[in-house]
Amino acid sequence: xxxxxxxxxxxxxxxxxxxxxxxxxxxxxxxDGNSLGAMPIGVTSRIKNTLEKEWSQDLILSWNTNxxxxxxxxxxxxIAPLIGASSGQVICxxxxxVNLFKLxxxxxxxxxxxxxxxxQIDNFPTDLYMAQGLAGMFPDNRLSVHTCxxxxxxxxxxxxxLVLMLTHTNFRTGKIHDMKALTRLAHEKGALVxxxxxxxxxxxPIHLDACGVDMAVGCGYKYLNGGxxxxxxxxxxxxxxxxxxxxxxxxxxxxxxxxxxxxxxxxKGMRQYLCGTPSVLAMAGLDAALDxxxxxxxxxxxxxxxxxxxxxxxxxxxxxxxxxxxxxxxxRLRGSQVSFTHPEGYSIMQALIAKGVIGDFREPDIMRFGxxxxxxxxxxxxxxxxxxKNVIEEKAYFAPQYQMKNQVT
Amino acid sequence: xxxxxxxxxxxxxxxxxxxxxxxxxxxxxxxDGNSLGAMPIGVTSRIKNTLEKEWSQDLILSWNTNxxxxxxxxxxxxIAPLIGASSGQVICxxxxxVNLFKLxxxxxxxxxxxxxxxxQIDNFPTDLYMAQGLAGMFPDNRLSVHTCxxxxxxxxxxxxxLVLMLTHTNFRTGKIHDMKALTRLAHEKGALVxxxxxxxxxxxPIHLDACGVDMAVGCGYKYLNGGxxxxxxxxxxxxxxxxxxxxxxxxxxxxxxxxxxxxxxxxKGMRQYLCGTPSVLAMAGLDAALDxxxxxxxxxxxxxxxxxxxxxxxxxxxxxxxxxxxxxxxxRLRGSQVSFTHPEGYSIMQALIAKGVIGDFREPDIMRFGxxxxxxxxxxxxxxxxxxKNVIEEKAYFAPQYQMKNQVT
Lengths: 409, 409
Fold this sequence. Notes:
Strand content of chain A: 5-15%
Distance between the termini of chain A: 33 Å
Oligomer: homodimer
């Protein structure tokens, strides 16, 4: 591929116009939108209005007049089409971790005679931690957390499996699970499924309803660009909604929160998955960020993401950089990220960042590069590989400042 | 009291200068800072910087370079002196409801042979709901929630009481509990105590360490003015910190979150009370709001709050408005709010709001008026009573638009 060809790819990109909706720093190629999405320009005016009009001037009345009270449901409805959910099954609230806890506890109530949460050993750790936290509340044998490799899932599912809890796109490798097949497999054993969509939502079409998924959670601050620590979301299939309860039963989930009754009475539908008072500021930011998705075709996002990743893999291969690809080469099996390992991965990434190419590092030796198709250009991919080639060939990463581990993300 | 006297009170007010630090709407007397604090002007520039510099330009690197990662601990340290806590015992995270759940579950681990959460029947309902949610996770008899009146607490505490869970300032009446006496009473029975400080923090001095309190939670968006749904805080006394675990064990509470190990290892000290990724935007707002308290004397806040409330009660009494006071007349027993009941309380409050005097209504017949001493003037109190006198004497509240219940706050 020549630079001219790459320019042609950008010229032909049907999503190219979306880049102007984001505020991006100069002289930077941001390949970490899979960890923290870039800021949509529309967020600033929305937050300004939330602060200076809604909070400052309308004050407490905003819960009604500016409809703060329905933000969790309304933002949930905006997320629903992105994950293949029809109306009334998604709510935006709390964090992915807290929402997982609610759903795992819900599963326990639905299937009280089952005792095992099954997950993948390389699931995103907070999912495992939340399951461990829940299991730790009970005496031995009531609930255990079992982890296995991806290949072992099928044989490890049993009639004692309460729930199969998986992350759709692997945070290290970017490999995508077959949601339909694994959901069916779990259901054949009588188990429920919970999908963590954090590394998928906004990067590809997802089909929760069509795959018969029971429950799902996901993150607002990666490809949805809702801002650092943006509220998460929670999906519960309609057919279960009248059968469930969840233990984080805060007042916002009450059927009549403003009656202030001493006894909890769960709200109808998704509302009972609310807990305490949500941050209006944080949710307004996500709400504004989601406006971008109103006009976008998720299939086009996925196609571009595959092409960006394919180009990256191809250029790295041509450059002979001695990096070990751990992501699927087949773009259809890969989320919007590409990961390589290298013994000096940490230092290489620090050197790249210093030169304006921002990816991230995951222990022990993984360099991750995310390609958010709404704001990454083919030319960015080419420039990133050129920079990496320079860093590696010149061994720039051996500079002391790049060798000292201090990063937390 | 004449208008001239009231002007003298404002002229002599040592806190008068703080009002200019808030953005308040014109022609409005805001007496609901006990529900949602007014916006400190400093919040806007801080949020603007968080959006336009930290998120937009520094992106993922902000977790290090702008120290997002330590915000929960740093904001906790700012709250600590407001609640009488020495360093290392407070963290800012999640919601009051979620934090209560963490602490109640912690208490279960600390005292596994005790089975009862004791609380007050008119505690803020979310506290009761969270306790009910926790109890509902276990088979009968493992954990129950018992409620009694304030007078019955002493006789209801037993050797089976796991934890006495109380709200320091009653959300309906504004009555303040004797924290020291009740904490001692609970400890004499071998029970733990959890204080909900939501309606106290920022309105009066609180002495958690000196009262020997085990655990506490509180709200960021009332007298702390952190913004709608601002993050909450959690206190755990130092002597218990090495003995505890909590079940909402998300990745941010891990000892080494960025090692991404599959097994949870709780962070040291308060960090293990973090769960998922917190909203940086929401916490930055609270952080900026707390700057106001760096120079303020909580004793002066409490004194002014008592005087504002005393003035309000006195003027209402002089006006012969046929309102029934349900708050303590003794200012030392009263938080920064005054509540009256009236059969037409809902409609009167709506009429007041339409005339620019904003308080709130609580079922079945309670009108609440909050007096946040940092931005409420004595003249505001006088004007509010004059408006209320007009509304009631003219029976303006019978207008159809004030009779139709539609408010949610």
